[in-house]
Input
Amino acid sequence: MEQKNEKRKTIVIGITGSIAAFKAEELVKELSADYDIEVILTQSGKKLIEVEKFQKLCPVRDCLFQPGMTYRDYLEREKIGHISLADKAGLILVAPATANLIGKIANGIADDLLTTTIMASKAKILIAPAMNNNMYTNPIMRENTGKLKKLGYFFIGPATGRLACNRHAVGRLSDTGDIAKKARVLLEEPLKNKSVLITAGSTIEPIDPVRHITNKSSGKMGYALAETAKAMGADVTLVIGPASIAKPGVKVIEVNTAQEMYDACMQNFAGKNLVICSAAVSDYKVLDESREKIKKENNATLKLELTKNPDILKEIGRRKTSSQKLVGFALETENLMENAVKKLKNKNCDMIIANSQEAINSENNKVFIITKNAVEELEEMPKSLLAAEILDRFR
Ligand code: CTP
Output
């Protein structure tokens, strides 16, 4: 990506003490073609890489105060190192990021050059975690990443694969090409000045005060779309049913029923450039919701009469203007393509993402992208990358 007549943007790359630290060299090489790179090493990161290799590629710092440096040097020569780096950065990328580094940022600890720079910066922060699977799935780690996501920090990965401890599990640093791609998107903001409405998760339809019917959905695809659209510079509104995943740092409208999701969408879709309906909406609701808990004593069988819910995607398709783009999802157990093509037409969509039930709850998805003129088969990929693939078509 060539940037003509433009001042090159700066990426500060933080390298921490994960075994994957050596891979940061590929990242520095790839990104320095288009951006000015400044590396900050943590004390553990420094032990895991060959510092000289990095010094040949870009400026490398590892502490607030170099040995022998006076307070005046730091102020005048270094221009207060952590502040000048923080101001200069268009993006701070921490790759790989350890549990320790993530825990520190999430809890406001700024005790070295990397954490003080992050604390002092208004730049976007992209974190690529890499660690042992038990560390990554530790509830403390989940809480910390959830908190940071809500605050608008961006994450990529970790991927599932072979770990340094020889297990096949989640915790591996994402592919460096994918990390570089995401870094570029964050800096270039291809959806700047666009507004996007996304539905995600499933809806729940009450039977009585303690029971409901619902669809299977983790909300991960919609979450990835919201997070990626924001990363691409869009103004994002996410309408989401009850989901147990961390909410991204965008405008979130939480709903329960299909009717509530419908109402929220109708109130918010005017003026949006792009609407993506990824929610697994209950097609039916219980006609007579019981006010009291239904008791089983006198009911050997139980009949529930269901009535149709409004179709959000179809209604938006009916109301949208020619400048608004609409994307729907089709999840089918049979005749995937045939049903998906039918949905494209019946619901007046610009694009249908056709996937199968394996997508539910999985970190990855394998889809067909269907438009009026083409059917494109994509390879299986993490939902965050798929989100970028989909959104990229609406630049
Ligand atoms: N959808 C919606 N509102 C509904 C039902 C579905 O917005 N009440 C959207 C989903 O978010 C998805 C698309 O419609 O983008 C496909 O939904 P799906 O349930 O698979 O298809 P339906 O059109 O409802 O048809 P069927 O259930 O018969 O396959």
Observations:
- The pocket of cytidine-5'-triphosphate is lined by residues 199, 258, 277-279, 281, 283, 309, 311-313, 328-331, 343 (CB under 6 Å).
- The radius of gyration is 24 Å.
- The chain is about 35% helix and 25% strand.
- The chain has a mean pLDDT of 92.
